Amino acid sequence: MIRRSFAVLLAVVALAHPAVPxxxxxxxxxxxxxxxxxxxxxxxxxxxGPALWLDYRTTDAARTAIEEAYRADGLHVVIPPGGRRGxxxxxxxxxxxxxxxxxxxxNLESWNAIDSGKLPGFADIGLTTARGCQPSTVxxxxxxxxxxxxxxxxxxxxxxxxxxxxxxxxxxQPATCGEFMPxxxxxxLEQDRWYCIEGHxxxxxxxxxxxxxxxxxxxxxxxxxxxxAFRRPGEEWVEVNTFWLNVYFGGSTVVNxxxxxxxxxxxxxxxxxxxxxxxxxxxxxxxAHEANIEFLFDEKITAGCAQNLFCxxxxxxxxxxxxxxxRWIKPPATSVDYFDxxxxxxxxxxxxxxxxxxxxxxxxxxxxxxxxDVTRGQIAAFLQRTFGFPTASTDFFTDDNGSVFEAxxxxxxxxxxxxxxxxxxFCPYNLSLRDQLASLIARSIQWAGAS
Length: 451
Description:
With 451 residues, the chain is α+β, with helices and mostly antiparallel strands.
């Protein structure tokens, strides 16, 4: 049978040269670092190679931009009021791919959609089928399994959070349009927070209901179907043909009244297995505090010390400490200038606001000492003033007797925020490292949530 897929039709008609699939052992790794990321790669002679991104339109160019993202840069997408397509090119996969996996990181920066829509996923669409409420036919077979977003704050998602799912065209779909397949509650995304999305599809034995569709969010399985049919007997040539970088609002006459904005980063497609999620920082992988460092990034407490870096083994200044805590409690702004030695300092506003909130009392008369390194005892006091841990009746450590911070140290120990630096010791006069501080703040936040 001669294959007639929509992707191949586009390759022949819309492009100046035929699209040639990638080699079977190639994996798509798109980091979205260049403005022309969708252009064919250059060969050894500097000439454009075969195009693999198909159906890239002027709309895609106008509504996407390369901007700072999860790891370095990423693809920022905006659907304006009344718009539908934000992006939609198709990446042509190798021939004979029976199953495939994808992974991308996504941030729904402002995604208050009033209707559902589509996000990237796999497909092998026909000439006219597997989209636009046109199901697969014997003469024009096709399937698709794009990620689905529901309207913000619906389907059990609190506030303006967004539940994800799959929007799937398959042979047993109940209606002409694709079937909505919601993910579990772990597939509900908060606005303006980075998540790792993984998907997996495996083609069914032609004529059998043994096709697989799976999804994970931040490593947690949120969807699992093993009973799907994407192709009929004799349709062995229907396969995992494309990765569809689709960002599309609605599909009806509903008009969204506001901008919808999201950013993708670190897209990988594999034909050999799951692709691990990335962590935000590249220099904390050998730190025992990595999970808490990443937690602080997710909570917008820290953006690191440089691009993709947290500097876990660097000491902490008083200004850094105060800024971390201010990002959590968000104290009211004050017009009072409490200190003379922070004028023009990058943390001046946070130092004044936290002084007004009673968290920082200075290091001398009208002095904040913003660039002085902070000790573990001082950190205990900052944490106690910020979170208000109950006074402890137990003396946990032997090396803080007589310290002005002893009560604060015992309070955070009783709350299980710290276990000290050694058996019966807290090391109150030692300087703190950034990764150690990350764990102390993360545990304090978690204590506050539990309380």
